[in-house]
Hints:
This protein is an alpha/beta fold. Helix content is 39%, strand content 13%. The chain has a single domain, classed as TIM Barrel (Alpha-Beta Barrel), CATH 3.20.20.60. The protein has eleven helices and eight strands. The radius of gyration is 21 Å and the shape is globular.
Amino acid sequence: MDKITVPKVKHFKGKKIITALTAYDFLTARILDEAGIDIILVGDSVGTTIQGLSSTIPVKMEEMLYHTRIVKRGVKRALVVGDMPFLSYQTSQEDAIRNAGLFLKEGAEAIKLEGGEKVAPLIEKLVSYGIPVMGHIGLTPQSVNLFGGYKIQGKTEKKKERLITDAKALEEAGVFSIVLEGMPEEVGKEITESVSVPTIGIGAGRFCDGQILVITDMLGMDPMFTPHFVKKYRDLYEEIKSAVREYIEDIETQKFPSEEHVFHAKKKEE
């Protein structure tokens, strides 16, 4: 399969539904890549899925660079996008350019950042320096404190128009795609029809140009967290727990290691 690039993703609009998932490590990234996923996002969701945090806000820049580096090692075809963590781009344009550049140095082929019209000038500057940008509007997790929780966005006419304005500002600034998160399906559809770049939905309905989910959500690895918009394709929490229990039992009953799992010294020749 041909390598997925930023221009190809833009060209997919209206021609191919885009598939995307998050990954945070080499083995998972290799599996996703070999399965044929288009985009792998090294998400700051690593904070809630891997680090056990209650939000993405504490995730550090150096942690995101580490996960980007090891994900890239497992990828040959998919487009790798690095997720810029909280305060890695909000403090100054100079910080944003430097940090985005560090993502590319570690193997990311694009970066993602949250925000609409207010971050458009920054995005325009990043793109002018050769840094491809994926936008992200709607329920933006780094603004969870401002929202008062993980709440659906764009539910009123005024808020819907705000999101459409944000999407158009991002398009004008030069993003190659926009993540639409946590909004009514009708709003996701209207935004998708309003911009010329692909939209990638997560809880934004059926009419986006693509879809993305957090890998641990769709694999059912956390029974305490299954958002309404997630389809759980496997129940790895129970499968892994069952495998570990079987392992424990085999050790305790001395079924493991068995003859096939041990080494023997060579017998001396007579």
